[in-house]
Design brief:
The complex is a heterodimer. Chain A is built from 5 helices and no strands. Chain A is mainly α. In chain A, α1 crosses α2 and α4 packs antiparallel against α5. Chain A starts with 10 loop residues before the first helix and ends in a 5-residue tail after the last helix. By secondary structure, chain B is mainly α. Chain B has 4 helices and no strands. The longest helix of chain B is centred in the middle third of the chain and has 42 residues. Chain B is globular and about 50 Å long. Classes of the chains: A mainly alpha, B mainly alpha. Chains A and B meet through α1, α2, α3, α4 and α5 of A and α1, α2, α3 and α4 of B.
């Protein structure tokens, strides 16, 4: 397996992930605004379209020759191109669930559970071409703290739950 | 109701699956190339779906403010960063740290725009999340 060895998060990873979560908040807010005007399907379609254009622009700006270190013959399997299918399905499921008695809080809390369980399984068995990672006690503690804090905010902190 | 609970959990599973697939693609290309394919494939699928259902452009769509178009470009950076992170710190750490960042910034955004916030629960939640994030950093 030629994958880079997985490490513990360092401060750079922490910053990138935390910032990425902040971007997600903005993204949900902007896409929600588009959805309010044109519906969930339009919102997701618009985001994927403008995203495709933005990615092309960024690639053109950042274009460099392929680094010599890129191992020849390490072509991605075809299924690795299907992330967008999974992402598009997510939007449809979420926008359906939000408009049921689950509401936003229930949808977020259950989605959080699905995400955590999937990531635990992915690391445990090394799914989809990544190395296995075993959780130690400290990792488990971090999982418990972040999940508890998130559920507290979703179920009690958001004003709509009152 | 059980069906909608299943939908909501499945949506979370698919978020993780998407990151795993894009992360695998980034191993063979770059995170930005993986993000490009993610958006192009999603755009194609949603275009076909929208044309088949005939409800892609509802009357209000044209009233979408220009800044709401920024969701797509932000998503490009979001997908690229997730693909970069998962190969380095694994699926669990990536998912948890991104969720933590989303929750804390969500509370900040709600406070900024005056949305109703139950302060004690949000503050305690933020403290727990920050403690969990700090725990991932300690040298063992």
């Amino acid at each position: 397996m030629s994958s880079p060895p997985a490490q513990r998060p360092n401060p750079l990873h922490l910053l990138a992930a935390f910032g990425s979560g902040g971007l997600l908040t903005l993204m949900v807010f902007f896409n929600g605004e588009a959805g309010r005007h044109g519906g969930a399907l339009f919102s997701s379609w618009l985001a994927h379209g403008t995203g495709t254009v933005a990615a092309l622009v960024l690639l053109a700006l950042l274009w460099r020759r392929r680094p010599a270190s890129a191992a020849p013959g390490s072509r991605a399997p075809l299924w690795a191109y299907l992330g967008g299918v999974s992402g598009a399905a997510t939007v449809m499921l979420t926008s359906t669930a939000v408009n049921t008695p689950l509401a936003l809080a229930g949808t977020l809390a259950l989605g959080l559970a699905g995400q955590v369980v999937f990531s635990l399984a992915a690391d445990r068995w090394g799914l989809f071409g990544f190395p296995r990672r075993r959780l130690d006690l400290r990792d488990a503690g971090a999982v418990a703290l972040i999940v508890a804090g998130s559920l507290l905010i979703i179920l009690f902190g958001m004003g709509s739950a009152a | 109701m059980i069906l909608f609970v299943f939908y909501a959990v499945l949506a979370g599973v698919l978020v993780g699956l998407s990151r795993q697939l894009n992360g695998r693609l980034a191993l063979s290309t770059t995170p930005l190339v993986a993000s490009f394919w993610n958006h192009l494939v999603g755009f194609g699928l949603l275009s076909v779906l929208g044309l088949a259902l005939g409800n892609l452009l509802l009357p209000g769509a044209g009233d979408t403010p220009w800044w709401a178009w920024l969701g797509g470009p932000i998503g490009v950076v979001f997908v690229a960063s997730g693909s970069w992170l998962i190969a380095r710190i694994g699926a669990v750490n990536t998912a948890l740290l991104v969720i933590g960042g989303q929750m804390v910034s969500g509370v900040a955004l709600d406070l900024l725009r005056g949305a109703p916030v139950i302060l004690w629960a949000s503050a305690l939640g933020v403290v727990l999340i920050l403690a969990g994030m700090a725990l991932t950093q300690r040298k063992g």
